[in-house]
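Q: Structure for this?
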Amino acid sequence: MSHYNLQSYHSPSDLKSALQLLNNTEESIKIVAGGQSVMLLLRQGFLSPDAFLDVSCIPELSGVSLDKNKISIGAATTYSSLELSKELQSYSILLDALHVIADPQIRNLGTIGGALGHADPSLDIVPPLLCLDSKITLKSLNNTRTISLLDFHKEYMTADLSKDELIHSITFDHVTKNQGGAYEKVSNVEGGWPTVGVAAQVELNSESDVLLNVKIALAAVGDTAIRSNSMEKNLIGSEISIDSIKEASELVSQDIDPIDDLSGSAKYKSHLAGVLSQRALRKAIQRAGGNL
Amino acid sequence: MTHLENNINISVNESKRSTLDSVGKSITKVDVDEKLTGQAKYGSDILPIGSLHAVVVRSKHVHAIINSVDVSVANSMPGVKAAITREELLGQFDNRVRYYGDVIAAVAATTSEIAIEAAESITYVLESLPSIHDPKKSVRDGHPKVHTVNNPDFGQHGRHEFKIENPEYVQNVDDYHHVHIGDVEKGFLESDFILEQEYISPRVNPCNLDTHCTIAEWDGDTVVFTETLGAPSRSRDEIADLLGMSREKVRVVLPPVISSSFGARSVPQLSFEPVAATLSHVAGGVPVKLWFDREEEFTSTDHRHQTFYNIKMGITSSGIITAAKIDLIADTGAYPNGVGHIVLSNGLNRPLEIYKIPHYEFEGVSVFTNNLIAGEFRGIGSTQLGYALECHMDELARQANIDPIHFRLINFVEEGYERPNTGRPIESCGLVECVERGLSTFKKIQSGPSTNPEKLRGWGMAAGTHTTGLGAVDKDSSEAKFILSVDGSLLVEVEVLDHGQGTDTVMTQIASEETGISISKINVCHYADTDSADAYLGSVASRSTYITGLAVQKAGINLISTLKDILDKLYPETSLNDLSIISDCVSFGGQNVPLSEILEEQLISIGFAESELNPPAYGAHFAEVEVDSLTGHVDILSYVAAQDVGFAINPKMVEGQLEGAISQGIEFALRSEVKLDHGIPLNPNLADYSVISAWEMPNVLVCEIIESNEKSGPYGAKGIGTPAMPPIAPAILNAIRDATGIRFNKAPVESEHIAMELLKQKGGIS
């Protein structure tokens, strides 16, 4: 049972109009694209905005573009179009996650920018983006700023987004040939929220036996999605072996702070963080051409 | 990626099937277009002109005295036509709330927005009372009382006097059953091996897509409810008794299309019909629509009873059962609705209808607590018993080093066996064929050992039974009315409702079989309200195909017989043996005569059927699982459901019933549970309560339909909807036992339980 105060619904077709609305309005305004997170909050009474600003009709905010060094994804790009995007077909770390986000109906509407603005620590898409060292570009009428995703999510369900700003795009560098990535997840039912989710991206040397670079990030084990610095530090420069991965995975508990909740106990989640870290790393290394 | 590969094998008696035209064939469901295109009008789609919208103010306390409720602000709001307190509700509502979601007040207004705002303006003062949530403690002295007396009268069906023979059970008793057969202590002395263990079942919700919705209005001093109630007449009586009204003054009218139920709509709900009726009464009798949202569906409608089964069984060294002692404690929740009685009696009866148990004792108590209310759910009581008994049989066999399948085979009942509980014989029993055919198919589809050391594979089976209809309790009866128009179309009126299970299609097939009228010219409708369907029970207890199918068959026979009488006079020299109705003609002896030449008006026939039997339908199910030893995740690789349905009137729909049951069985075994913290639901929404999808279904699934030919049923048929349930969860859990070596005895067995137990065994975690 909820009581909505919603007075107006804006659906501009260009970015400038959207930014003007955000700049001028006296109303409390909530940005919406696919509505897959916002509508739940609204229904449960956690949100009661005066107006919605629907950004899904702004062409500039949708789609994937490439330049020489990086990939840029418009904030209002849906999960489904990312899954099908040919530019992302070599990003197995993203594809793994995109395939297990909720169900196809939700992926057809839910957007990447909506997820990042929502800042839920259990979102599947965030750990892969953290592993790719993604940057977020935010725009307001008079300003554009770019910050790292790591800094964008500072607290539980809180994004570093001012009232007059919207998420414009997400960018990350191209992966190189000797890189590989994977996302592993456990959930109570297929397409459910992750009990724990782990993403890993690795870069191997030319002989494919040493880890030149390792990025590991986890969902649902803290106030925000978390990068596991302890594991990364332990593995960077090491030779590839099942044992070294196993040993490193035991360090993950230093970086996470899971809680008991409906999806599982903190103890189980800590255990899963280790198990899934190993699995994600093994898969990422194999995809990068490493032998295991 | 799960690839769902379904197969359906029918054993049948092909010679019998080949003599039938419509029955025994997998015709398409007759209502499929209407439902798939969204044209079907369910109860919640209806909004009579001038209807008010109702909102209920519900308790967040699990047990409290209501000191005061102030509805004055709500009553003064424009658009509000009724704002009432709990004590103003018609019926027996006192000043106490007994569970989270119990009703405190309610409003009806011209729009739902106004009703919500008005409900939010209502203030109240509650004084918390000590509460009780453990049914094992609740019945014992010294714990809070939910009701001041045992067996309180809330108009519930099945309420009966009982004598509690257990001195420990002194309070909060909803119902009690105790039976001795033979001498159970002597039986244990004769045994070589005894196992005793407890099994706990989950509180699950059917999660009907269409949530509860009723429209209540008054026609003079008669209250009329428009909604789906699976047993309309019985529910009408219960509502009348609950409201303190005479039964003639209460009517239940069915909406154009019937909602799904799975038992959830088999009994009225305490905070539903009485609330809507009172609001309408206060508002001058205009229609009041009360439509539950998903949270109310979880908090204020019925769940499957959580049960605590303690089973002790003794066997000889060769595996013959000598004795069984079963103790059942069932959590009824805060109020009675007659279903506790069914859970206990089904728990009591089922073991005796599947195994020969010479010495037997059963004691069961259904108990009031300050938890959510329990009620009917597909295979009431038999599902919980089946889970506990079949896990126990499996465990006992494994520990005694006896093959679990052989153990069952040597103890099964058989045709002609007289059930010691009812004295009635078992007339059809396909158990052995279920096991043999099921196992043979299962061996062909099994994946076999895993090559991945992190994945453990195993398989298991379980048998199960649930009865068809109510014969053994009361004589069950049903009626069907045929109206043949001169254009050759046939209207079939029946008392059972098509909740989606396909009774309209089954009745169409039977009517077509008996009259020759083509499927497309037959329409099935339900007796639209309780004034016309008096005395019949409706769609519960898997009785529809069995008892109403018989009535339809008889109505068809009677129709043809009446036509023959008419034609005999018109064509005295012609043989009428092959008479049937084809298009708008009567066909006989090589000639076609238009119906319009024979009939001046429509021709009506009635079929009546009754049965004192309640034939058990049986199943043996086989499951192969793969357990991820590190995460505990269970994947069901292959599954065979071998089910004895007597005779499959529509094999494809039997398959549908089995697959639907398997999904609910998987939820029971592995995924779903309404979790309570001191009575407060932690997951009353579909984000946190897990409902499975096709992903969690077995990768390979085969349905083996066994046809044991139940002589008392139409064409040999008995039930499928509910009897499909009992074997599923135990087959899966027995497979997990096989894979892991661990017996999990509290369902659902979640991944975490499995992972942590496996770790504990490896000494990896304390």
